[in-house]
């Protein structure tokens, strides 16, 4: 009682427009009345019991705030966090992020006719992987990487958004119907096997291909359909790579052979194709890491030229 | 609004003693029940959190930038004896279980950098409370912390959160204890695997506050602190330096005692964890006057080289701690004195050398 809050989200941020339904709740564009700048407000509704805010929420948000200290250029800024009570069972946690007008999806759609240049794609990829390496070295996985949550500023700077949220949401989320696109999901997630940071590398591979194609690489309509489309490109994996802890069986899929990736991504150069295949490795253990990907000849090649 | 009489101020803090029995209802922190089967991700995730290594481009390469004030010495030393100091620090961090070998140096640089964040520039935490009032509250937190058998890190984090909350929030005298318990509760949520339930905390405070009030304060503190509840405790610096300096068990216990006393001192809130730890260890050595070996002296020189450039600050802290230790036994706020008078802590708080510790410093400086 008689406690005056130092900063109150509802007063400081004035909603301007709804900018996304999102699987996990509504996202608003708002104006920071103090600075006049635009921000993105993300509300997370967490279920609270008699012991207050869940431990996982406290720790996850603290981790995001701690990472914020490093000021990584390829990660979206988390400016403010606020918690307000909605009911005895529910607390709304508002995360205030910097607002970037454009995502990679729009950026790709807006690119004039032949699409992005090879150099531009390489630059975007390097930034994307730098951001990802930073998240992974802090034990944060994104889990839902897709063109919609990769932001591109007007200066061409890539900023990853919505990382770490998946975990905050999934732990104690008040139930909302979750509709998440399957297109960037790796086989281990589709098969409901165990997974870790390699999930993000798979998604990055899909996005890498999409930068050339300007349409998604695998557009499945169900989990099984998505897996089928993946195997049409990378081939059915050998039996020893099939995870043992899953119900979906390998024999349910036709014994397809891998096709050259250039059949699907004709514009990609040789080193790019090699890197892409290392990102689209079926076995997550064999998939390249973000740090190693940055060391790949695909990127070194460019340095030599410049 | 000035402080009211001492009795009125202290009344609620005394009630902890009435309700000691009711808080052993600890419940395990729910292991994050993720809806997706995340089997590969190891559970040491949260161990990695405090000391998560950071080895991505650029940020670990420029140590000069990490120490904007007071710690300039580290850089020059780093240039002089880089390999030896680095090796010692890496070995110590690994031995203490604070890092694995590969990332140890990055972890150390990260510790040095992190402590700069959230440091409090001045000692004026709140216009409404005196240092004496704050000391009574911290003393109470220390007692509850001990009662709940929390880890040391949790205590340092709780007091750190308290200091920042006092800055950010306007709290009435009547709600000071409420703020204190919430800081401890939040620290526990961050650090502990067993948590007391809120009902238990209420009965601990003789039901002075309702559960609803506790949960409301939790949200207010989290908002005011912007959910920034990561902290590098001075204790980790202390253990690190003690390990590099090959200090004896008695010296380490004495330093831990002095470091915990610093929590009660309002003047100490402005100092960095690395400085508080260095000062506590220096003073502990001077008080105990153990006979030294050439190897011991060399090790000590290497450890103290981290503080090159901040000796005047260290001396100031040592004076504050010496004064605090000399009067600790006679104070009302004596939880720390009692804690460190036990056999397990080698009864360091009762060491006769502490009575004249300030005089000792005068002679040296």
Characterize the structure shown.
The complex is a heterodimer of chains A (306) and B (365). Chain A has helices at 9-12, 55-68, 104-110, 118-137, 165-172, 187-190, 198-213, 223-234, 270-279, 290-294, 297-305, and strands at 13-20, 27-32, 38-47, 78-85, 90-98, 150-152, 158-160. Helix content of chain A is 36%, strand content 15%. In chain A, β4 (78-85) and β5 form a beta hairpin. Chain A has 306 residues and is of the alpha+beta class. Chain A has two domains: 9-98, Phosphorylase Kinase, domain 1; 104-305, Transferase(Phosphotransferase) domain 1 (Transferase(Phosphotransferase), domain 1, Orthogonal Bundle), CATH 1.10.510. Chain B is an all-alpha fold and 365 residues long. Among the domains of chain B are: 120-224, Cyclin A, domain 1; 234-364, Cyclin A, domain 1 (Orthogonal Bundle). A two-stranded antiparallel ribbon of chain B has the order 1-2. The longest helix of chain B is centred in the middle third of the chain and has 17 residues, at 131-147. The two termini of chain B are 41 Å apart.
Please tell me how large the radius of gyration of chain A is.
Answer: 21 Å
CATH first level of the domain at 234-364 in chain B: Mainly Alpha
Q: Mind telling me the CATH superfamily name of the domain at 234-364 in chain B?
A: Cyclin-like
Order of helices and strands of chain A: HEEEHEEHHEEHHHHHHH
CATH architecture of the domain at 234-364 in chain B: Orthogonal Bundle
CATH fold-level label of the largest domain in chain A:
Transferase(Phosphotransferase), domain 1
The greatest inter-chain interface is formed by: A-B, 55 and 58 residues
**What number is the mean pLDDT of chain B?**
79
Distinct helical segment count of chain A: 11
Rg calculated over all Cα atoms of chain B: 21 Å
Main sheet overview of chain B: 2 strands, antiparallel
Number of strands of chain B: 2
β-strand percent of chain A reads 15-25%
Tell me the name of the CATH class of the largest domain in chain A: Mainly Alpha
Nearest-integer average pLDDT of chain A: 85
CATH superfamily of the largest domain in chain A, by name, is: Transferase(Phosphotransferase) domain 1
C-alpha termini separation of chain A: 62 Å
Instruction: State which percent range the strand residues of chain B make up.
Output: under 5%
Task: Tell me, briefly, the overall form of chain A.
Answer: globular
Number of structural domains of chain A? 2
Largest sheet geometry of chain A: 5 strands, antiparallel
